[in-house]
Design brief:
Helices cover about 70% and strands about 0% of the residues. It has about 375 residues and is an all-alpha fold. It has a two-stranded antiparallel ribbon with strand order 1-2. The two termini are about 20 Å apart. The N terminus is likely disordered.
């Protein structure tokens, strides 16, 4: 009964949002009760179909989040995103001849996140123990890499006195932070509850005095018991915000930040190629709308339900299309698929567009989460 009431509340919230849109009218419910909203003929047919599909998908996602079934899928997606990031950083650092030992760190951490994410989709203990540790390590490694890339730009002739030249010709400035998207998704999956959780869950970061029979403390729980109470309290508050629908604003802001990094990296990589093809402008021009929609989500529920899903879906589609174009570019190089390793290392970065698609997925996830009143 509680679940059905929660789903009904989520549906009513989305209908209220749709009811504020121009060209949407109220329709009498045949059995009385709450009256839904339906698009009128003033809206294009494709937009009316999209609004109905968005309402349905939001209800399904919201129900899966509440029932704990969404955690498995998000953990697997975090692992798959780490594959794309791992191949990308391996290619970039190989071109840099692994001049410093720390350049090996993301090459080893990304497979750990992949293993933890895919394993966590099938095993509750892996999702609660291995996935948060690997995801946090990837986030920290991204921050450290960002510092090293700033130092790399500074050490080039002229340093920051000629920023345009050195940023373009130096190490990709925001690439390490883009790698942290996989770790961020993994941490979100960690805090989401799971359908096979025991009745009294011992989540990472909790302090409990009693536990039910058959529930054993994992190594992560023992580690969490040594942390300061302030840190463990913040872990509980974050999980409560996710369950109560107050996490959408944070995901919207994260989408805007990721789109900023992706747009800058697209500009950086395609500028080095002289924008040889007109399609190379698409991710550069699409990034500002995604950034605006992500920032607007923090302040407006209407933007979270309209502009954010549209721009995020466009980013996901452009990322997938870019992956195909980069794969075709590798195949068209001298030797083509007869020299796959060489052409993959020195051709267009194969998995870089998938990081742009991951930003689109992050925005879609934010748009489908329910929002606190």
């Amino acid at each position: 009964m509680t679940l059905m009431r929660d789903v009904a509340e989520g549906a009513g919230e989305l209908r209220d949002t749709l009811g504020d849109l121009p060209g949407v009218r109220r329709v009498a419910h045949p059995a009385g009760g709450r009256t839904p909203y339906a698009p009128t003929k003033r809206l294009p047919r494709w937009l009316r179909i999209g609004l109905r599909a968005t309402e349905h998908e939001a209800l399904v996602i919201d129900q899966h989040v509440r029932e704990g079934r969404f955690q498995r899928g998000l953990a697997a997606i975090a692992g798959l995103a780490a594959i794309a990031g791992g191949f990308e950083v391996t290619q970039q650092h190989y071109q840099g001849s692994y001049g410093q030992r720390i350049m090996y760190s993301p090459v080893f951490i990304c497979p750990l996140v992949t293993i933890a994410g895919i394993w966590g989709a099938f095993n509750r203990r892996a999702a609660r123990v291995l996935l948060p540790l690997a995801s946090l390590a990837l986030l920290l490694d991204g921050v450290v890499g960002f510092v090293f890339h700033i130092r790399g730009v500074q050490r080039k002739p002229g340093g920051w006195r000629i920023p345009v030249v050195n940023v373009v010709m130096g190490p990709p400035l925001f690439a390490p932070l883009l790698l942290g998207i996989s770790g961020f998704l993994g941490l979100i999956a960690t805090f989401l509850r799971r359908e096979d959780d025991p009745a009294v869950e011992l989540l990472a970061g909790t302090r409990t005095h009693t536990r039910p029979a058959g529930v054993h403390r994992t190594p992560l729980h023992l580690l969490a018991s040594w942390l300061p109470r302030k840190i463990t309290r913040e872990g509980l508050e974050l999980e409560q915000h996710i369950r109560e629908g107050r996490f959408q604003q944070l995901l919207g802001a994260a989408t805007a930040i990721a789109a900023l990094f992706n747009g800058f990296e697209s500009l950086y990589a395609h500028y080095r190629n002289g924008f040889r093809y007109r399609t190379q402008w698409i991710p550069v021009l699409l990034s500002p709308p995604v950034i605006a929609a992500g920032i607007g989500t923090v302040f407006s529920k209407r933007i979270a339900r309209t502009a954010l899903p549209l721009t995020s879906l466009a980013a996901a589609l452009v990322g997938g299309w870019g992956f195909w174009l980069h794969a075709r570019g590798i195949a068209q190089r001298p030797g083509g698929l007869k020299k796959p390793v060489y052409n993959a290392l020195y051709g267009p970065p194969l998995f870089a567009p998938l990081l742009f698609a991951a930003t689109g997925f992050l925005g879609l996830l934010a748009s489908l989460l329910r929002r606190a009143s």
